[in-house]
Write a structure and sequence with these properties.
Two copies of one chain form a homodimer. By secondary structure, chain A is of the alpha/beta class. In chain A, 43% of the residues lie in helices and 17% in strands. The first copy, chain A, is built from eight helices and nine strands. In chain A, strands 5-6-4-3-7-8-9 form a seven-stranded mixed β-sheet, with helices on one face. Chain A has a two-stranded antiparallel ribbon with strand order 1-2. In chain A, strand 5 and strand 6 (128-132) form a beta hairpin. The structure holds a DNA duplex.
DNA sequence: TTGTGTGAAACTTTTCACAGCC
DNA sequence: GGCTGTGAAAAGTTTCACACAA
């Protein structure tokens, strides 16, 4: 099998989301690469090429069966397994994330929240238990949690990350505005920077005003 | 001048941030492409190549002057202008964003917040006035606001976007989990999806467990 | 006629190799 | 010896063109 472009895999995520929405909102059973492409602002060749890396999913003259293609992509991406996730920090950002539409979707279920504030510990939010930070190691091991989300202030992020890693977590999504990196190959860390997109926009505006 | 890769421009943002941090934390006046690359987990050729598209900034045998290079990149990216920003929605996500470190940084100043909840209107948060949604058009025009951040629930996002566009906003950063797109070339829209990164992590985990 | 699947071409981006300067 | 700047090669990605099927 040939090497598959990284970018193609990322686009599969987008296709999957679009397909799920189409399956819900539209009565059409099938969808063409052109429709799918238009939804995402790309061209149809790209859609077909991306899919062709993994097999033949469509029917000539007709298109793809929406529901079936969604299932196939789910399998390709390995999203048929449900991952257990914990959220660290229940401040504004943490609260926003826990109620974010899409975090409860297939394959992504938050099963524990860790928080320092004693007023919040012991309660539940969206049906999920809020534990004290001290119990992190135990709870993660007991529940077999695999992914941790860090939504604590920047100065606490490093210590929380260490605790997560000690508890054997496999991947971390970090929202704190600080770069986390560990030499270990044990854990995969992704840093999300909410301000970088804003900077990109500012830069885009700067450039169009230069040109005109 | 040759075409400059989109990716290079995005990396300049990262270089800038790293340089600013180095300027603060380290006593060294200079930095080499290798150091810079290591901070970001890329290779030094890339750093030098990216910079070379815009000119010669370093000194052979020595490296780059940290502070000066930061200033140069600032100019290249057009970030020496300060953009005026408004935030729509002061729920959990909006509150998280307004206090996010980095949103107050150079070039990015939020000057107004719009919110539906009457209890919040008329107050200030971080010194920024909270206005009723009805006054959006007027306030944006009066203050010459150029960028809007949408942090309202998905079902309100489209209407808020239309209002922003009517008021003459130039760019929108959308955090609502719904794809916004307008045919007009008048406004640049970027959709941020907080769940896509989590899906990517899940998929990464799925793939390493497949291989082992 | 509509729409997939795919090799080949075109284009973009990254990596390499090394001349040149401190 | 250390480090930049850059043309050229390699690698990666997107677009094109068209055979083929419903």
């Amino acid at each position: 099998m040939k090497r598959i472009p990284e970018a193609s895999i990322h686009r599969l995520n987008l296709y999957l989301r679009t397909l799920k929405e189409l399956a819900k909102n539209s009565e059409d059973v099938t969808v063409s690469s052109k429709q799918l492409a238009e939804e995402l602002g790309i061209n149809s060749h790209q859609v077909r090429k991306d899919l062709s890396y993994f097999g033949k999913f469509g029917q000539r003259g007709i298109g793809y069966r929406t529901k079936e293609l969604a299932d196939d992509i789910n399998k390709i991406l390995g999203l048929n397994k449900k991952w257990k996730i914990c959220l660290c920090g229940l401040g504004n950002l943490g609260s926003a994330l826990i109620s974010y539409r899409g975090f409860r979707k297939e394959g992504l279920n938050v099963v524990a929240v860790f928080e320092k504030d004693k007023d919040k510990i012991g309660k539940t939010i969206n049906g999920i238990d809020v534990f004290s930070v001290e119990r992190m190691n135990r709870v993660i091991r007991e529940k077999n949690i695999e992914i941790g989300i860090i939504a604590v202030p920047a100065d606490a992020a490093k210590s929380v990350a260490s605790q997560l890693i000690d508890a054997g977590i496999k991947a971390i999504l970090n929202f704190a505005p600080i770069k986390l990196s560990y030499p270990q190959e044990k854990v995969r860390i992704r840093n999300v920077d909410l301000s970088i997109e804003l900077v990109n926009l500012a830069q885009f505006l700067a450039n169009i005003s230069k040109k005109s």
